[in-house]
UniProtKB/TrEMBL annotation:
<feature type="transmembrane region" description="Helical">
    <location>
        <begin position="12"/>
        <end position="32"/>
    </location>
</feature>
<dbReference type="GO" id="GO:0030057">
    <property type="term" value="C:desmosome"/>
</dbReference>
<keyword id="KW-0963">Cytoplasm</keyword>
<feature type="transmembrane region" description="Helical">
    <location>
        <begin position="107"/>
        <end position="131"/>
    </location>
</feature>
<comment type="similarity">
    <text>Belongs to the TMEM47 family.</text>
</comment>
<feature type="transmembrane region" description="Helical">
    <location>
        <begin position="151"/>
        <end position="172"/>
    </location>
</feature>
<protein>
    <recommendedName>
        <fullName>p53 apoptosis effector related to PMP-22</fullName>
    </recommendedName>
</protein>
<dbReference type="InterPro" id="IPR004031">
    <property type="entry name" value="PMP22/EMP/MP20/Claudin"/>
</dbReference>
<keyword id="KW-0053">Apoptosis</keyword>
<keyword id="KW-0472">Membrane</keyword>
<dbReference type="GO" id="GO:0006915">
    <property type="term" value="P:apoptotic process"/>
</dbReference>
<keyword id="KW-0812">Transmembrane</keyword>
<feature type="transmembrane region" description="Helical">
    <location>
        <begin position="77"/>
        <end position="100"/>
    </location>
</feature>
<dbReference type="GO" id="GO:0098609">
    <property type="term" value="P:cell-cell adhesion"/>
</dbReference>
<dbReference type="Pfam" id="PF00822">
    <property type="entry name" value="PMP22_Claudin"/>
</dbReference>
<keyword id="KW-0965">Cell junction</keyword>
<keyword id="KW-1003">Cell membrane</keyword>
Length: 189
């Protein structure tokens, strides 16, 4: 990307594309019912960020209770949701930043800083949830934090990594814009 510059059409949209993938992963984490699941038979426990469901036996009906009745449930949902909203804002700002012909590198660095703030909020929600869930909700059998919870962590890790990319990109402003003279290692005899 640095070799060809950000005007190189295939490289220009890599960072906004990665942010878009992070937004999709965040949507999956928010909507997924697989934050916590029973690991072995009988499958009697299932939870999302919003509710916890259980059934008495393998053939019974699921009964669900909202986690929004707990203060920690509201805190986990709110902090993760704030992180997700900041990620969506960063995605929109990145599209705007890379769509204009003249890049504003300080603007790009600001997107990186906002991504770090989004990562802090996301990680807070991802830490509050398992700690308080396992201490305050009665669980039976062997349970595991499952695929939707993993998508939440993937989103948080992408926010951190992309924050570094967005913050470090302005350090290579001259190389990206093509303002650096090429160095040749040829000497005449």
């Amino acid at each position: 990307m640095v070799k060809y510059g950000l005007d190189y059409t295939r490289c220009r949209w890599i960072l906004p594309l990665l942010l878009g993938i992070g937004v999709i992963f965040g949507i999956i984490a928010l909507a997924g019912r697989g934050w916590l699941e029973s690991q072995t038979l009988p499958y009697v426990q299932q939870a999302s960020l919003w509710e916890s469901c259980r059934r008495p036996s393998e053939g019974g009906d699921w009964s669900c209770e909202s986690l929004m009745g707990y203060a920690w449930g509201r805190a986990a949902a709110a902090t993760y949701l704030v992180g997700f909203i900041l990620l969506v804002i960063c995605f929109a700002l990145a599209i705007i930043a890379f769509a204009i012909d003249t890049l504003r590198f300080n603007f790009i660095r600001g997107i990186g800083g906002l991504l770090f703030v989004a990562a802090v909020f996301s990680i807070m929600g991802l830490v509050i949830y398992p700690v308080k869930f396992s201490t305050e909700i009665e669980m039976s059998g062997i349970n595991m934090f499952s695929w939707a919870y993993g998508f939440g962590w993937t989103t948080a890790i992408m926010e951190i990594c992309l924050g570094f990319f967005f913050c470090c990109l302005p350090n290579y402003e001259d190389q990206i814009l093509g303002n650096v003279k090429p160095t040749y290692f040829y000497s005449s005899p």
